[in-house]
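Deliverable D2.4 — example input (structure tokens):
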């Protein structure tokens, strides 16, 4: 079990921001003996979780795409939800976002940028989102019996108390839509709605856009989302 946990930890270091690691650099980062790490990397490459380049560095293997496709096909709701998310983003010229809950953590599983004025480097790429500061987090917690999340403050608008949180969840359940108005990132807003499949909450579908646009278009955006 410890070997599996260590292998999992190693894989987590291969991120969008840092997709390639050399043995020495990663060993220093993990504070792990190079010889031990080298054995783990060789094993992960043999199992096709990683692939080794000619200069001896490692990166994630294409085999992970196969597992990703298998996961998506096993989810009866995913294909249609992803299609609707992309259509919604294109219709509203925003960034579409699809999120799920995994072990009480909000996970962004897909994004689609349809905002012609938004440059690529300004698109949020976070995988794990703060529940208390995002529209997706509010929806996922509102329709499930979960303990309150960590109330970390990101901006002056972030919800940071249990009373505020419960009041917000009641509003989300009543209106079937959640908002995040500069609660996580200054100058950015988001709206999200629940995605139910066979009577069970599976995900959230939402959009993200700048505050200036939100203030001008909020009524229209609300109507569009509730009609999805």
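Example output (designed residues):
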């Amino acid at each position: 079990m410890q070997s599996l946990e260590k292998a999992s930890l190693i894989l987590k270091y291969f991120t969008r921001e840092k997709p390639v690691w050399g043995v020495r650099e990663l060993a220093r980062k993990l504070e792990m003996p190079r010889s031990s790490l080298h054995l783990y990397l060789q094993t992960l490459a043999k199992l096709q979780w990683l692939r080794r380049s000619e200069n001896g560095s490692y990166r994630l293997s294409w085999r992970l795409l196969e597992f990703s496709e298998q996961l998506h096909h096993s989810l009866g709701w995913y294909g249609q939800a992803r299609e609707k998310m992309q259509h919604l983003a294109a219709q509203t010229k925003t960034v579409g976002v699809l999120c799920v809950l995994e072990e009480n953590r909000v996970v962004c599983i897909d994004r689609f940028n349809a905002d012609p004025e938004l440059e690529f480097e300004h698109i949020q790429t976070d995988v794990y989102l703060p529940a208390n500061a995002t529209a997706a987090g509010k929806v996922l917690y509102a329709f499930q019996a979960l303990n309150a999340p960590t109330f970390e403050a990101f901006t002056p608008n972030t919800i940071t108390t249990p009373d505020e949180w419960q009041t917000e969840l009641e509003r989300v359940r009543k209106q079937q839509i959640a908002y995040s108005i500069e609660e996580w990132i200054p100058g950015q807003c988001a709206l999200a709605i629940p995605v139910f499949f066979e009577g069970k909450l599976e995900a959230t579908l939402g959009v993200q856009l700048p505050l200036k646009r939100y203030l001008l278009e909020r009524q229209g955006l609300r109507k569009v989302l509730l009609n999805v």
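DSSP finds eight helices and eight strands in the chain.
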